Amino acid sequence: MPLKPTRILDLVANLLIAAVAAWAATRMAYANFPAISVFAGASLFPVAVIEAVLAFMIRAKVNNDEIGDGRNRLHPITAARAVALAKASVHVGSIAAGVWLGFLCWVFPQRGTLRAAAADSPGAIVGLLAGLALAAAALWLEYCCRAPDDPPDDAATT
Question: Is the dihedral of CA 103, 137, 143, 70 positive or negative?
């Protein structure tokens, strides 16, 4: 069975399910949560940057037809591993974004009445953006790992 590109609908479902679960958990247990720093929210940004850089490197190798076994070439197994990384990361990013979104949906309206909610909001916003950045970088990496189209076999038909 061929590997299919990640469907956006699956990522939206991940995000929404995680958001609802996080909203419910936050609503029930916010008083027991530790303070959320901006650094906690930003933890996925380095992974997103690494995946974006990897995507550009792989894209250059694919465009220059530098795929295969040999020095300075992209081994097909390396490309397959990058696809596996992208497939996992896109789901992690969408779920993380959903968790931060659900947290924000409860915390953001409480900013005027709870000082802790006001202090937690920036970290949650950064976390939401980091999750979305990871999902976007992983989708880009997945796209860059696609095999180039086979040339038409015109010579065989003449």
Answer: negative
Q: Which residue has the tokens 């990522």?
A: 11
Q: Can you give the pLDDT at residue 67?
A: 87
Look up residue 109 and give its two tokens: 């309206």
| Of the candidates 46, 44, 26, the residue with the CA atom closest to the CA atom of residue 120 | 26
What's residue 155's pLDDT?
Answer: 53
What does the DSSP 8-state code read for residue 70? Answer: S
pTM of the entire structure?
0.88
Q: CA-CA distance, 133 to 100, in Å (whole number)?
A: 13
Closest CA to 8 of 99, 102, 145, 143: 143
Cβ atoms of residues 26 and 102 within 8 Å:
yes
CA-to-CA distance for 81 and 79, rounded, in angstroms? 5
Identify any residues that bridge with 74 across adjacent strands, giving them in sequence order: 67
C-alpha 108/C-alpha 113 separation (Å) is 10
Mean pLDDT, each 10-residue run in order, the chain (158 residues):
87 98 96 91 95 96 88 90 96 98 94 88 96 98 82 54
